[in-house]
Amino acid sequence: MNIALRITIIVALAVTLAASGGVPPEKNKAPAPSGQPAPPVTASNAPASGSGAKGAPGVAAKLPRLLDLGAGKCIPCKMMAPILEGLKKDYAGKMEVEFIDVWKNPAAGEQYKIQMIPTQIFYDSNGKELFRHTGFFGKADILAKWKELGVNLAK
């Protein structure tokens, strides 16, 4: 089955889940692979320049990173967009927030082993995956997850 068809099926499932109220949180968690490093940063998944890291010019600060993989036309992904933009603005210099459209960049979906969109991946400041969530994830839930993971994002 090709990736475009798989993603289409996944989006259909995501829309159905969103319309039905979703999956209970305890069944919506996928454990992070133990000891598996974050995928390498490439031109297709590198954060945009000026993404909020503060420090000496040319030296990127190591920050925790929230990566959201979705699509511009997916309904739950559209609902996530203003949340991600708000987090990016409100926590600039505290964490990186990045969105990758897997319909425009299907290789990223394969690289990050995405099975459903949207998927949020939480990385520590060393690039180690800490947690994965699939489906819509509200701002308060995202911030609570960072706190649960021991990441202090206090303003």
Question: How would you describe this protein?
Answer:
- The protein is α+β, with helices and mostly antiparallel strands.
- 32% of the residues lie in helices and 16% in strands.
- It is built from four helices and five strands.
- The chain has helices spanning 3-19, 75-90, 106-111, 139-148, and strands at 29-30, 65-70, 96-101, 119-123, 129-134.
- The chain has a five-stranded mixed β-sheet with strand order 1-5-4-2-3.
- A hairpin with a 5-residue loop joins strand 4 (119-123) and strand 5 (129-134).
- It is globular.
- It starts with a helix and ends in a 7-residue tail after the last helix.
What is the strand arrangement across the widest sheet? 1-5-4-2-3
- How much beta, percentage-wise? 15-25%
Strand tally is: 5
Broad structural category: alpha+beta
> Over all CA atoms, what is the radius of gyration?
15 Å
SSE succession = HEEHEHEEH
Contiguous helical run count: 4
Please bin the fraction of helical residues: 25-40%
Distance between the termini: 46 Å
Outline: globular
Largest sheet: 5 strands, mixed
Low-confidence stretches: 15-59
Mean pLDDT: 76
